[in-house]
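Notebook B, p. 112. Complex prediction, attempt 2.
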Amino acid sequence: MKEIVLEVKDLSASYRKTTVLHDVNFSVQRGSLTGIIGPNGAGKSTLIKTILELHPALTGTVKFFNEPYNKVKKRIGYVPQRGSVDWDFPTDALDVVTMGLYGQIGWLRRPTRKHKQKAYEALEKMGMGDYADRQISQLSGGQQQRVFLARALVQDADMYFMDEPLAGVDAATERAIMTILKELKAKGKTVLVVHHDLQTVEDYFDHVLLLNRTIINHGKTEDVFTMENIAETYGGNMRWMGEKREHAFHIVE
Amino acid sequence: MSYTAWIILTAALVGLSCGIIGVFLILRKTAMMADAISHTVLLGIVLAFIVTREVGGTPMLIGGILAGIVTAFLVQWLHSLDVQHDASIGIVFTTLFAIGVILIATSIGNAHLDVQHALMGEITFIPFHTITVPWIGEIPQATALLILVLLVVLFFIVTFYKEWKITSFDPALAASLGIPVLFMHYLFMGLVSVTTVASFDAVGAIMVVAMLITPAASSYLWTDKLVVMLVLSGAFGVLSAVIGYYVAAWIDTSISGSMAFATGIIFLISFLFSPKHGIIAKRLKPETGQTGTDPV
């Protein structure tokens, strides 16, 4: 049994008066790459935000590396949804990536050339070196997502939470991001990714967390990602194209 | 210095402070909070007057800051109780402003505070209330206050520059990096409040909103760099103040009104002619939208 690095117990959360998450219990092993899968409104983003204390939890406890969140903040990286920020903000790609280092730089100090260099290397790793001084509104959706990934990379965290990094990106960006995720995993980092495309789950993730307001199932992809479990998660709003689940898609949001 | 020079200097200081603060109001999408705070500081000033029985100076600043922060806090609180954000702003500031108006009418009487003055300001009287500052000599009280506030604003913007940037662009990331996003929000609202209080005498509650929002919105049309936007916005504020004064002198009308009008003219020119985001530039260029090509 591998080391447990994330332990969530009895977590619940609500938006206004609606309970979005209830009785969430799960633990994640070091070095795993987990896909968080579920229909729209299942609480996938809320789960991440609640775990990271960006959204208030009604009940429950979360432990990272056996510590509360406040003690290990610097070891945890978060990639919000691309649509959560205003891309017209007056800044360039390199500057956005440098923001990932603000926690390490600390108060009253400015980013030095060393920090900029580090940010540039992360951009280069994502194939975005040539776009470093590009105004961020001038980037395509895929390029913006790569900038976000580069920003997470410079944090050099031990555990990453990513909210739909593959939503609405081009094929090349999807490949680039998956290469990076597998590289992080190979380095022993733990990654949890909110994912929406059922067809690629088996290729991308070694663990799957099926979520619909609570955990339907969680475990190794080959054990958990079965037709019955998917149908249960999506509440039967599924149409099966052919016999194989690879062709399943969600018809009712 | 002549009266005219003092008036222009005072107005330019208002333009500069408001222009700088305004950039972050726009980028944090809280422009309407400026409107709210510009009205509720009236209550703070009135309460400070009732407690200390004097107009101006430190009590007024403290009252204004407290009123501004209470406004920000109440808006946040109502919003957390499921009232829409814009509705919370509307409810809080009108109520606090109304209390201020009632207090002026009932418990202040004849002092140098009336609603007309609060709304419109009276910059022409500024050179008559002077104080003596060591080394510099006698200068108008409002001008001295504005210099002090400008220094405070510059200090906080420069010192926490990267924190302002990240909490404006991506508050979720900022929070996950351990930057106190909510504290920065209240600190910023405090800065908006001091700027507003200091500008109050010169331009009044309504015109200060024009000075806070319009130069920043104009500068946003000219540049894609935050530093440049800050400098331009401050410059537009100063320019509006100077143009406004001369327009007012020329057609003999309200100085604060002319200055606010000048900010609108600068915005209109930016909106039409800015090479980056102006209407004409957009018409001339073919619609490209997102111009990035994907690297492979």
